[in-house]
Design goal:
- The complex is a heterodimer of chains A (637) and B (61).
- Chain A is mainly beta and 637 residues long.
- Chain A is built from four helices and 41 strands.
- In chain A, the strands form five sheets. Chain A has a 27-stranded antiparallel β-sheet that branches. In chain A, strands 33, 34, 36, 37, 38 and 40 form a six-stranded antiparallel β-sheet that branches. In chain A, strands 32-41-35-39 form a four-stranded antiparallel β-sheet, with no helix packed on it.
- The mean pLDDT of chain A is 89.
- By secondary structure, chain B is mainly α.
- Helix content of chain B is 44%, strand content 5%.
- Chain B contains two helices and one strand.
- The longest helix of chain B has 22 residues.
- The C terminus of chain B is likely disordered.
- Classes of the chains: A mainly beta (637), B mainly alpha (61).
- At the A-B interface, helix 3, strand 36, strand 37, strand 40 and helix 4 of A face helix 1, strand 1 and helix 2 of B.
- Strand 37 of chain A pairs antiparallel with strand 1 of chain B.
């Protein structure tokens, strides 16, 4: 099906390899050549390609869900906020085409949806960020961005009639499970493209190409400031849209490493704690600090500032390290479609985050490089949702030439962790509690759980092996004249006591409005005699007063004594009470191996004291955290 | 650090409980004493009236 021809612009050989491609870009003169029914048409020239450091290239073959494709061309589109992104065109069998967009190191494969419900799609002017749009019979996605893009360059074969300088009006959509879509607002009506975010591995891109991409190292390109002539380094020259001169403070527009003066910032107004170019080992690996933006919000007339350090690593793209009140967070971007929920909660990765604060944040200072056309005074609407140590942050940019919603996930880092990451020391420690600062002592609750479990198992072990048994029991006839001055002495028969078993001595007597005391001892048969004394009073009183019956005491009493050495023992007792009020008899019983639940509860109580104190501290910690929020669950309003 | 301190104290408490339970020890036993055989009275008794002289209890509600 390949068609060979000559470029109408320069006469060089051109080729249409794919039967369904509409245009091809002449590799020599950069003319876009369209094929019609009878002749070739020169649509005009495009600029040279912008170096985007992409791992993809025309001619590369891969697979998507098992179906092979070949990349035949690409268009480079300029974003209204600055920067360009590549849109690659993948030719599949049977004249099917896929749109493979590449932006910020991410890849999105989409396909045209011929039967999309275009009648129900909102007009571009009516599309609002976060709106849900029905893009297919059973598919709803959220609007993440809307704007206009301009084609700046192209190469290879393209499946539609692309004209130099052509502009595109679009709304990008995002949904769960990496779903992605675009509504292209064309002159003849909206067109829907649906697909998902993909990785190079999923596309089965040849390893050589991927390895070359992964092996890229960040290097500094030395340039001179057009304002002061001082040297400055560009560490991401193909991505940077703005750079602030460290010498004179000028904010410079940067396009492919070419600098142009934009605005003067007061030099040295904000001194970055992390120097530009420093490399830190962060949770996703080593990253280089290439810029810093100071932002502020105003509450009750007071400005609150924080710093956002822009980190760059070619394989990962951009990340942020945010320093606020000397608290640090490592921030990575999220797909808007991965965040759901409404009201004061948001759901991400099955984790629920609570709304902490909403504000309008403005850029107040810039140091180093930035990947969008940042300006001092630029404002975004922010909403922070927390689930310590994480924070979901939403930023909405509303500009006349486009709207965008960005979600990011920040993870709390201690100053010590930042010091270790950058091999520095002396970072100021925070004095307050950050929105996403984790309570530092939650481990104590786990420890309490483990210790309590261990105590319970010990208790069960000892109670199950206690072998509770009756050792001795006897009924004794009580001398009715036994008084404390002349107690009745009684010595029992011998009985055996086992070692390492506690001993319970119990006395039962039917006293009635009287008392009876049994003092005695367990006396060993072996010499010298071991004597374990005890005292067991039994008293029971009852009456009726003012028509109300009352009673006090009972008919039995017992004591539990520590284990004695194994051997033969007798009970030596002295019984006394009130004359003529003594019962006729009493019963004495000796048991061994009595289960001691009391001690289990005492151990449990002692184990719980410290965690309970820490629970109060935890509550206070959370209370103080939420004092900084307008949405505190501790507030009545 | 606090967690380590708590774990250490808690573990010591469990060890103490284990030793106590294993040996059948109890809190608050009246003091034991040892009486030589020569001081024991006949038929195994070690002295009528011995206990009540040391106790102050005389009953009552």
């Amino acid at each position: 099906v390949s068609v060979q021809a000559n470029c109408p612009g320069c006469g060089a050989a051109i080729e249409f390899k794919i039967g369904s491609s509409m245009v091809t870009v002449c590799a020599y003169c950069r003319s876009i050549v369209a094929r019609g029914d009878r002749k070739l048409e020169d649509l005009g020239k495009v600029a040279a390609l912008v170096e985007t450091d992409s791992p993809l290239e025309v001619g590369l073959r891969g697979k998507y869900k098992g179906t092979p494709f070949e990349i035949t061309g690409r268009a480079q589109l300029a974003h209204s906020a600055g920067g360009v992104w590549d849109e690659w065109y993948a030719a599949f069998p049977k004249d099917h085409w896929g749109w493979l967009a590449e932006a910020q190191g991410r890849f999105y494969m989409t396909f045209p949806v011929p039967k999309a419900p275009v009648e129900s799609l909102p007009a571009y002017d009516k599309v609002e960020l976060r709106d849900t749009v029905l893009v297919a019979a059973d598919r709803e996605l959220r609007v993440a961005e809307k704007g206009r893009a301009k084609m700046v360059s192209a190469e290879g074969e393209i499946p539609y009639r692309l004209e130099p300088g052509q502009t595109f009006t679009y709304a990008d959509l995002s949904g769960p499970d990496h779903a992605f879509g675009t509504i292209g607002y064309e002159e003849d009506g909206p067109e829907v493209y649906l697909g998902r975010e993909v990785t190079l591995d999923e596309l089965e891109i040849p390893k050589k190409s991927k390895a070359r991409h992964d092996a890229r190292q960040i290097g500094a390109q030395q340039v001179s400031c057009p304002q002061c002539g001082g040297a400055l380094a560009l560490r991401a020259p193909d991505k940077t849209e703005r750079v602030a001169c460290p010498n004179c403070g000028s904010l410079l527009d940067c396009h492919q490493g070419n600098l142009r003066f934009l605005a003067a910032l007061e030099p040295g107004q904000v001194k970055p704690i992390l120097p530009m170019g420093s490399v830190g080992t962060l949770p996703e690996g080593p990253m280089t600090v290439i810029g810093m933006i100071q932002r502020s919000v105003t509450f009750d007339g007071v400005d609150y500032h924080w710093e956002e350090y822009l980190l760059y690593e070619p394989r990962l793209g951009f990340r942020w390290l945010v320093r606020s009140d000397n608290h640090w967070s490592y921030v990575r971007p999220l797909r808007p479609g991965d965040v759901s929920g409404a009201g004061r909660t948001r759901l991400y990765d099955d984790r629920t985050f609570k709304l902490f604060q909403k504000a309008d944040a403005s850029v107040t200072y810039v140091v180093g490089e930035c990947y969008w056309k940042v300006t001092v005074g630029e404002t975004v609407q922010t909403a922070d949702y927390i689930r310590p140590p994480e924070m979901l942050a939403r930023e909405m940019t509303i500009a006349k030439d486009g709207e965008e919603i960005n979600w990011s996930l920040g993870t709390y880092l201690t100053p010590e962790a930042v010091e270790t990451a950058f091999n520095i020391h002396g970072l100021t420690r925070p004095w307050n509690i950050a929105p996403n600062q984790p309570y530092p002592y939650t481990q104590i609750y786990k420890s309490w759980g483990w210790l309590t479990l261990a105590a319970a198992m010990l208790a069960i072990l000892f109670i199950m092996t206690s072998s509770h048994r009756k050792v001795f029991e006897q009924t004794i006839v009580v001398d009715q004249n036994a008084t404390p001055e002349r107690p009745q002495a009684y010595v029992t028969e011998q009985f055996e006591l086992a070692a390492r078993k506690n001993i319970e001595v119990k006395v039962e007597a039917a006293v009635d409005n009287a008392w009876l005391g049994v003092e005695g001892a367990l006396v060993s048969d072996a010499t010298p005699h071991r004597v374990q004394p005890f005292y067991l009073p039994v008293k029971f009183y009852h009456d009726v007063e003012d028509g109300e019956p009352w009673s006090e005491g009972g008919h039995h009493n017992s004591t539990i004594l520590s284990a004695l050495p194994a051997g033969k023992y007798t009970l030596e007792l002295e019984i006394a009470g009130e004359q003529r009020k003594l019962p006729h008899s009493l019963r004495v019983r000796v048991d061994q191996g009595v289960p001691r639940w009391l001690y289990v509860f005492v151990v449990f109580g002692l184990l719980s004291i410290f965690p309970i104190i820490m629970l109060f501290y935890h509550f206070n910690f959370e209370y103080r955290r939420w004092q900084e929020s307008d949405y505190s669950p501790y507030s009545s309003s | 650090l606090l967690n380590k301190f708590y774990l250490t104290c808690g573990s010591l408490l469990l060890v103490a409980y284990g030793i106590m339970a294993f040996n059948g020890w109890e809190f608050g036993d009246p003091a034991r004493h040892v009486v030589p055989a020569s001081e024991m009275h006949g038929s195994g008794g070690h002295g009528g009236g011995t206990f009540w002289h040391s106790s102050g209890f005389r009953g009552g509600k």
